Request: fold
Amino acid sequence: MSVLSSTARRAAKRPRRTVARTLSGSRIRELIGEIAAIENDGGAGTLALAGDTQLEVSNLDKRFFPKRGYTKGDLMAYYASVSPFLLSAIIDRPLVMKRFPNGVGGPSFYQQRAPDDPPAGVRAEPVADEGLKTQQRLVGGDLTTLLYLVQLGAISIDPWHSRVQSVGFADYAIVDLDPGPRASFRRVVDVALWVGEELDRLGLHGVPKTSGASGIHIVLPLVAETPNETARLMAEIVATRVADRHPAATTVTRWVQSRPASAVYVDFLQNIRGKTVASVYSARATPDATVSAPLRWNELTPELDPRAFTIETMGTRLRDVGDLWREGMRRLNDPRRLLGARGA
Reply:
């Protein structure tokens, strides 16, 4: 069977992708002011968004990040500020929610299904999950849905790798570097550089980003009509080659109990349909309100500190370096270059 079969090509004929709906810079600044005013006036009120769309919000004065003192309103304002960059990264993608009703110090729970009867302007669509029944899911791409996620207590934004128009096809593959309990972040940086070396050997292009927690993601943009299984296979080839070259520092062993505590798990299984990792520019449920930040390869040095990227500092970062994600994702990898010679 070829990497991109004729059956897959026919199945990939789908409606055109939609365009992310963003506000102007001046309107975003006004919206951030409205969020602050509601927070200062008891925490509950109504936000006026695009057109006649309104969103009821509450508890904006609740401390979501006690260590830093950041509130739910601060998180909502952050997402409004980065929406011109984030929305294009999650447009048309089903979203998985991990909700923290009382912030990072409180209990949390995952939610796959969209709430019943979401507010007007929130995008929810039926999505068929592999092996599961079709269910309504929130879908990314507009500011109302993004801020509604925060209203529900979601801290991170976790999109599928595929889109609602083409859930069988991935836009990118991910190599997720997950350090063991005794592996330093400096070791994670070393492994990320080894992944980069392997990509160079294979003639592939990757976009590195901090996970926003303790790891690093290497994202491989893909040409259209790449099946999910092909994306997973590409990530597996890269991961296993890295683990073979550096067995003392890396592992592809799936079972946590079998991994060396000082090793970095080079995870390719996040590419299974419906799996997610935090989106670029997503905040994370960490004490410091860190953010998943795209990087240049030359920033992967021993001095790199993932705690430098937070909901407070990301705005300055974007002004200084621009949208590295959008820039990096323009260069697409064709799986046939890697897998065709292998008879896949």
